[in-house]
Amino acid sequence: MSDIVFLDRATLAPQIKLKDVNNHFTYIEYPQTKPNQLVERLKSTTVVITNKVILDKNILQQLPNLKCICVAATGVNVVDLEFCKRNNITVTNIVDYATHTVSEHVFMLMLALSKQLKSYNRTTQEGQWQNSDQFCYFTSPISLLKGKTLGLIGTGAIALQTAKIAEVFGMKVNFHSPSGRVKINGQSCLRFNEVLSTSDIISIHTPLNEQTLNLIGDKELRTMKKSCLLINTARGPIIDSSALINALKNNDIAGAGIDVLPIEPPNKDDIVIQNIHLDNLLVTPHVAWASTESMQILADQLIDKVNAFLMGSLLAQDNLST
Q1: Which of 35, 80, 168, 306 is most buried, by the most CB atoms less than 10 A from its CB?
Q2: Element (H or E) spanning 281, and its range?
């Protein structure tokens, strides 16, 4: 029996230290939790911490003592928010902890793709440069970021920080707001298709919801420039993976940098994983958010919110920020 349960502590790196929970309450953590373990572990719990463990209606209705869910992330698609609202369960999430680390990761992917890092690293490993008769060895065209148009899908803190970095690189930035925002940063948000068709690089920064599920599919990919690079550090299901791989193989777009997939960890037959050898595809394992500094900020904020709820100062679902 425990007042607070952390269902998937292993989603935070081992070097990350958690603050102490208020000592009037008992706390237990598990490295991970499978769906068939949820009810047994939470049946007498007041506060649950989850990062990726799904708490849907079927589970929640079996937990009469549950009063608060702390999501150890910004995205809250793992929780049935409507059920929580109807049953007076407070839901809180973590905000503004990964703004800089995600935007840096976005630019790492942009630069690696535009400079053909994967291709040039591979050919050097294979000895092609060493066996050439020139001081430099050309295999793939390299492009500048300066002067390019960056289309940002989303208008939150990470998108805004990405825009700031883009401006330093001398890029033009346009925004599209899936939620319907008209202006951001003093400029008008563009229509979706306009951003798709005019951008040299598109980076996704929007939550996963009914409006953004499969937001980028075959039609949208064919709307993009053939020279376009597509970056996704948001959520995997926002892009149709099969359509993306087809677009890369058919040269409908020039490249993609992917940090998230629809199922994580991916199955060995995931179409993106099966094609990871493609020179115009970069895949990282959902680590854009995971600098040590950012994870520690998340962990500190997480326990602060748990303690705030336990002490009565976190009382309403309006604490939720998405």
Answers
A1: 306
A2: strand 281-283
Q: Which of 9, 105, 176, 235 is catalytic?
A: 235
- CA distance linking residue 190 with residue 130, whole number of Å: 48
Catalytic member of 126, 167, 264, 293: 264
pLDDT in tens, 171-224: 999 999 999 999 998 899 999 999 999 999 999 999 999 999 999 999 999 999
**Short-list 150, 121, 144, 128, CA closest to 279:** 121
Instruction: Look at domain 4-97+293-315 and name its CATH class.
Output: alpha beta
For the chain, the domains span 4-97+293-315, 99-283
pTM of the full structure: 0.89
Contact by Cβ (8 Å): 80, 249: no
Is 41 an annotated catalytic residue? no
Are 121 and 101 a contacting pair, CB within 8 Å? no
4-97+293-315 and 99-283 share one fold: yes
Is 9 in the active site? no
